[in-house]
Write a structure and sequence with these properties.
Helix content is 60%, strand content 5%. It is mostly helical. The structure holds zinc ion (ZN).
């Protein structure tokens, strides 16, 4: 009898420990969905000038040279400058006028590729005004899409796809535009065609997108939309109506706080947020059932009930703040993949700011600090055993930055994050004169000592 009780207690202890580990070290959210395709323009060339004398040829030679080396913005600037200089050379002027759409779209794509869509759009618009080309229309569609201006993006996508319906990369992105407008049946129809036409290697990923879109289409029949200054919230009209003010005020307050404390800029256009019933979340995201949130261009949040107790309400607020950090970092960095330690660490650090979870909890079995390489590639590639600790220790790395470099260090780092900035780990730490190897060594030392020097928290 005694033996049996002892055995029962032992199992209860094991289960409790496992449960606690699971609670403490599980990632809060899914790793980001794989990056969308990044379409390119067809290669463009400048036409060879005919009937050019030596003086004419000399006038355009630098433009050719810059274009040939891929310096498209430089070539455009030279051409703009030359136009003012050569009114007495009709051949050159005629050639420049003719080449301008190619020069402008090439410069536009060069800026688009480094995430500078503000400048890219200026070039595409100029080009479009001279001559409507597929390259400029495609560039405009992509830039408005990246900048989340879906209504304008839609018109350019439609114009482009009317001429080039076989461009599957653009069709795939267009389904995302359609989702923003709740036009799910059209999005599902396009995805079905893409699955059918895809090469076998591409079919599983597309099928997954189709399955998710079908799940969302089903959900959408019950949905309603409410907007605040920076957010557009989609929710189930009947079951989740009580939550909308909590969700929107949490996000707006967090936006103000992140802006004031860390300098994160508010979005220019509303960020989309979708609430799902927890039981439907798996089918709309194709993710594991434990995930508490997802950011894949939209904040997708599962909720279990419309009336949350205090604990569940605090938990939802933390999840919203966490996913909002991912969304803002994506906007700042042109949706490039940041090192996971940085992305996940900051999301945890900011979501817990001045809250109960702000004191770092090593947990009952902290284990070793993971190898440096574990923090560099997607946590999806790590084993299930290591993904949780990598996530947990990412926060520890961020706290170590503050411990080493002071309370203002995160703000300094974030002020240098921009669409064209380098985003490897060393470049991110450069504003505080840090390098990742040094940060890692310090964090590992603190971890082994189970202590973190006083931080700003
Ligand atoms: Zn996250």
């Amino acid at each position: 009898m005694l033996k049996k009780t002892a055995l029962g207690l032992f199992f209860a202890f094991v289960l409790a420990t496992l449960w606690q580990r699971q609670r403490e070290f599980s990632p809060r959210d899914l790793p980001r969905a794989p990056a969308d395709p990044s379409p390119s323009p067809k290669p463009q060339t400048l036409a060879s000038p005919a009937d050019f004398g030596e003086a004419d040829a000399a006038a355009v030679r630098p433009i050719f040279a810059a274009f040939a080396t891929g310096d498209f913005v430089g070539a455009l600037n030279l051409a703009d400058h030359a136009k003012d200089q050569v009114p007495q050379r009709p051949n050159v002027l005629a050639w420049l006028t003719q080449q301008m759409p190619v020069l402008l779209t090439s410069a536009g794509w060069a800026r688009l590729k480094v995430g500078d869509c503000d400048q890219a759009r200026v070039y595409f618009d100029r080009s479009h005004a001279l001559k409507a080309t597929q390259e400029a229309t495609k560039g405009l569609a992509l830039c408005h899409y990246k900048q989340k201006n879906m209504r304008v993006a839609r018109d350019h996508f439609l114009a482009y796809l009317a001429v080039d319906p076989g461009d599957s990369e653009m069709q795939l992105l267009y389904t995302d535009v359609l989702e923003s407008e709740s036009r799910f049946p059209e999005a599902v129809g396009i995805l079905r065609q893409l699955v059918q036409a895809a090469a076998p290697a591409e079919q599983p990923a597309l099928q997954q997108r189709l399955d998710s879109m079908e799940g969302r289409a089903q959900e959408s029949t019950l949905e309603q939309v409410e907007a605040s200054q920076h957010f557009r919230l989609t929710y189930r009209a009947i079951e989740q109506a009580d939550l909308t003010s909590l969700v929107l005020s949490t996000l707006e307050d967090a936006m103000v706080e992140f802006n004031e404390q860390f300098g994160l800029p508010p979005p220019l256009l509303p960020i989309e947020v979708v609430l799902y019933p927890r039981q439907a979340f798996g089918s709309v995201t194709n993710g594991p059932s434990w995930a508490e949130g997802l950011f894949d261009g939209r904040l997708r949040i599962p909720v279990s009930s419309s009336r949350l107790d205090a604990e569940a309400s605090a938990e939802l607020q933390t999840v919203l703040r966490h996913e909002l950090v991912h969304a803002l970092l994506a906007l700042m960095s042109d949706s490039r993949s940041l090192p996971p330690w940085f992305d996940e660490g900051l999301a945890q650090r900011l979501s817990c700011n001045q809250r109960a979870c702000a004191v770092f909890d090593f947990g009952p079995q902290p284990g070793d600090f993971l190898p440096e390489s574990s923090f560099m590639t997607s946590y999806l590639s790590l084993s299930a055993v290591n993904a949780g600790p990598a996530y947990h220790q990412s926060l520890f790395l961020i706290l170590t930055i503050e411990a080493k470099h002071g309370a203002a260090s995160l703000r300094q780092i974030l002020s240098h994050l921009a669409v064209g900035s380098s985003i490897d780990s060393d470049a991110l730490l450069a504003p505080v004169n840090g390098r990742f190897a040094g940060l890692y060594a310090s964090a590992k030392g603190f971890w082994q000592a189970r202590s973190l020097p006083t931080t700003s928290l």
